[in-house]
Amino acid sequence: MVAVVLLVTIVLPAEYGVDPLGTGGALGLTALAGVSVAGDPVPPPTGTRVVPQPEGPFALYPAEYKVDSREFVLGPYEYVEYKYHLEQGATMLFSWRADGDVMHDFHGDPDGAPSSAAQSFDTRSRRQADGSFSAPFSGIHGWYWENPGADTVTVRVTTAGFYTSAHEFRFDGTRRPRAVRGLETITASRDDKEIP
Length: 196
What we know:
The chain is mostly beta strands and 196 residues long. Helix content is 10%, strand content 48%. It has two domains: 1-33, no CATH class; 45-183, GOLD domain (Jelly Rolls), CATH 2.60.120.680. It contains two helices and twelve strands. The strands form three sheets. Strands 3, 4, 5, 6, 7, 8, 9 and 10 form an eight-stranded antiparallel β-sheet that branches. It is globular.
């Protein structure tokens, strides 16, 4: 009997995205199976597609890169997904830190595909990661962080890349777009003087 309860409440939501009782969504387990927190797929952004044009060892893009920095405070057993829209081949640099243990899954959802088509690229428990990502397909790509403990955890993420939009998905089922910034928001130094 215990095995059946565990199968229905934990294993099916976490491994297959099947959540007949709703416990997988409440505990954040469906995200581990690649199931989107909010049901409908995020539509691709309108406007200029930021697709890389390879030229030898580097690539040119039709728009400037964007920067973003966020902080998420996760209560006990809460989770958040934070994703960016990248075209196939577009790159992003990232650094993130958590002040406590978090379950982590970096994954992507192809444009227009159901959440069951999500692909996971890096899943493990850790407190930080620094690296780069090149999108294998056009869609939203990013992190799922879950606080598996009883203490509050803060996650900070900073990115720069050729993405066009960002989206936040919360444990309570809410989803909202987030603004990303361009180069005009970055201050630079020249001869030890800051350029406004």
